[in-house]
Amino acid sequence: MSEKQSLGETKLNVDQTKADLENHAKLEAGEPAQCADERSRMGGHEALQPTRLYKRRWLIVFLFSTYSLCNSYQWIQYGIINNIFMKFYKVDAFTIDWMSMIYMLTYIPFIFPVTWLLDKKGLRVVAVVATAFNCAGTWIKVASARPNLFAVTLLGQFACSFAQVFILGMPSRIASVWFGSGEVSTACSIGVFGNQLGIAIGFLVPPILVPNVDDMDELAHHISIMFYITAGVATVLFILVVFLFQERPELPPTQAQATARSIPPEQYSYIASICRLLRNWPFILLIITYGLNVGCFYAVSTLLNRMIIEHYPGEEVNAGRIGLTIVIAGMVGSLICGVWLDKTKTYKQTTLAVYFMSLVGMIIYAATLNLGHLWVVFVTAGALGFFMTGYLPLGFEFAVELTYPESEGTSSGLLNCSAQVFGIIFTICQGKIIDFYGTRAGNIFLCVFLVIGTIMTGFIKSDLRRQNANLSAKAAAAEEQKSEQDYGATALISQAQTPPYQA
After folding, report:
1. What is the DSSP code string of 198-227?
2. What whole-number distance in Å separates Cα of residue 394 and Cα of residue 338?
3. Mean pLDDT over each residue of the chain, to the nearest integer
4. How far apart are CA 312 and CA 305, in angstroms?
5. How far, in Å, CA of 61 to CA of 468, rounded?
6. Rounded distance, CA 367 to CA 361, Å?
7. What number of helices (H) and strands (E) belong to the chain?
8. Are 219 and 122 contained in the same domain?
9. What residue numbers bound the domain in which 164 lies?
10. Using CA atoms in the order 75, 80, 85, 86, what is the torsion angle rounded to 10 degrees?
11. Nearest to residue 29, comparing CAs of 268, 256, 212?
12. Interatomic CA distance for residues 133 and 324, integer angstroms
């Protein structure tokens, strides 16, 4: 394709996005078409609003990442020492699996009320509520460190899972509200980074703090220590959020965010926004493909201890280290993908490539798990994690591009809802397949769905609305500057040609 054709297509996309934004604003505000036409004849472009980047944005995303870490750590802290908690609470493996799956199940019914709250009340209210429930859940668990109090520890885990509903949809919203167009993907990756680091710590720390001992009193002591440490951290984070977390900067960071702010809250319809998203076919495809990929990650993480112990008995600590390897590699992948997106804006190409490599990683992991060499499992698990976990921020940012100017929290919420649904289905099904047919059959089951997801990703239309909105704003600014320069030059020429007696 020639450079001229490429420039022509870019201009067409920019004009189309501008028209879509104007139609969206008219629908939200109930503006008659003739008023819009009149405004268009009178002014052409809207006046550009002032924007600014604040240093505080890094504190906000770091604080969010930290309390997201504390919450996600607790998701896997039971599953990674599945056999120890089965012995302590005298329950079966499937019951302990539900200590992880409750995070997924709780998300599904509460996501729509929570995203509505995020749209109506903003980031600060949601952040405070999230850390409050997370803190409460950790202290409930402190009271549950006795063999006959499984119901209490389940209640504490439910409180933490409810807090997660307020957390998962926030990275892309924080990135859009606080960060410039050249750093939103990196900021979103940092937000997801905290969640991934928490999962990594959840794989690593419980097997170290809670050894597999037979004395129930000693085991209760170790479990209690683990719960107290978590509760102390959660309490400190709750206090920090209350005093330091800010709703949004005084001035928007980008023209795209300024446009999103310009819609009056009383004219915003949450139901209408959901309906528009569900009519957006590229986004619907992304919802399904995101759910398939992340659902596979949830299943592998939840059942990792069972898979490792089956082939390498007594290796609970190494099972945790393998889980750590998966997530640490994924964190590196997330940051690399975020920086890459900010530099190239190749959302679909990058998403498709990472999805395909997730499939390749899953196939290799499934084929090598039973070879009898733990170092091989570490290598293959790391490769799987680099791409599968690294896919998380890609999905968030691609969704924001496809759905702008809709709320980032709503689009992220729908993605996560899909992930939770597929996560529950895959975890239950893979667990049953492992029980009857072994780990290889269970992993092949996941590979089949990753093949489907890769094919569907190839059919997603790359409609980068947010990027086109920023390009439109830059074009308007350049046109305005050119007009001012032309006007100034004309004025100087006129003044030079005016006779002295008329001056």
Report:
1. HHHHHHHHHHHHS---S-HHHHHHHHHHHH
2. 7
3. 81
4. 10
5. 25
6. 10
7. 21, 0
8. yes
9. 54-247
10. 110
11. 268
12. 26
Query: Amino acid identity, residue 152?
Result: V
Is 473 within the bounds of a domain?
Answer: yes
CA distances to 341, 343, 361 from 435, in Å: 41, 46, 23
- Judgement on whether residues 425 and 302 belong to the same structural domain of the protein: yes
- Per-residue model confidence as pLDDT tens digits over 213-240: 888 999 999 999 999 999 999 999 999 9
What's the chain's length in residues?
A: 503
Place of tokens 């006779």: 499
- Tell me if 211 sits within 8 A of 433, measured CB to CB: no
Where would I find the H helices in 122-269? 123-142, 150-165, 170-178, 184-209, 216-244, 255-261
Q: What is each CA distance from 417 to 103, 111, 182, 296, in whole angstroms?
A: 11, 7, 28, 14
Provide the residue type at 401 as one letter: E
Residue in the block written with tokens 């439910």: 158
176, 469 contact by CB (below 8 A)? no
For residues 299 and 430, the answer to whether their CB atoms sit within 8 Å is yes
Establish if 41 belongs to a structural domain.
no
Q: Is 499 helix (H, G, I), strand (E, B) or coil?
A: coil
* 476 torsion bin: left (phi>0), alpha (psi -120 to 50), beta (else): alpha
Summarised one tens digit per residue, pLDDT across range 89-110 is 999 888 988 898 899 889 888 9
Residue 286 counted as domain residue: yes
Whole-number Å distance between alpha carbons of 346 and 351: 8
Q: What is the mean pLDDT of residues 40-45?
A: 40
Once rounded to an integer, what is the mean pLDDT over residues 111-131?
A: 87
Distance CA 271, CA 28 (A): 12
Provide the pLDDT for residue 97.
87
Is this structure's pTM higher than 0.85? Answer: no
Q: Is residue 217 part of a domain?
A: yes
